[in-house]
Design brief:
This protein has no helices and 14 strands. It is mainly beta. The strands form two sheets. Strands 1, 3, 6, 7, 8, 9, 12, 13 and 14 form a nine-stranded mixed sheet that branches. Strands 2-4-5-11-10 form a five-stranded antiparallel sheet, with no helix packed on it. It is globular, with a radius of gyration of 15 Å.
């Protein structure tokens, strides 16, 4: 399991059953900002014209973001079994889910809005998200699963994560929580 010691890029790997010839790399930088805010910077590099990327919209809650290009963070306190799922779309839309155990839960009603900022060039898509400490599971030791779903121009999805469990893509699987973070 990787531990965060400073904010350095960590590369996601493509699931072997969903290979992408388009994407050059997807990196994530994880950092703890003031007041224990979790800061994530996802960077996707490739010819973006070969991907389907949602158009910018006003920041709002939306469901089903994982059906298209989307960046995700799964956060578990200690050994769980509960965890939170955060979905961030390049459109600026977001969703937060709360689980008591493996896929046992649903949407989390929150009053505050996660901060999502997107920058795009011809060959680079960067999505920065800040998750307030109030949204995170309670605990100083957190396990993270970082992931991305990327839709190509033909509608084919590829699945990217720090680590993939055996079998089909499954970001909720305990083996996907491959990074450890200790809040100060």
């Amino acid at each position: 399991m990787n531990s965060i010691t400073n904010a350095v890029p960590i590369s996601l790997v493509c699931h072997p059953q969903t290979r992408s010839e388009t994407i050059e790399r997807i990196d994530v930088v994880v950092d703890v900002a003031p007041r224990d805010t979790l800061a994530l910077a996802f960077v996707l590099e490739c010819d973006l014209s070969r991907l389907q990327i949602p158009e910018p919209r006003s920041s709002r809650r939306a469901g089903g973001l994982w059906r298209h290009t989307c960046f995700e963070a799964f956060v578990m306190a200690g050994e769980g079994p509960g965890y939170r799922e955060f979905n961030f779309s390049p459109s600026g839309e977001w969703a937060v889910y709360d689980f008591r155990g493996y896929r046992d839960g649903g949407e989390l009603e929150i009053d505050l809005v996660p901060e999502v900022v997107v920058h795009r060039t011809l060959n680079r898509l960067e999505l920065n998200a800040r998750i307030d400490a109030d949204f995170l599971p309670q605990g100083r030791l957190l396990r993270l699963g970082l992931a991305a779903v990327v839709e190509d121009i033909d509608g084919v999805l590829s699945y990217w994560a720090l680590r993939h469990p055996p079998g089909k893509p499954d970001f909720h699987h305990a083996d996907s929580f491959a990074m450890q973070l200790v809040l100060p």
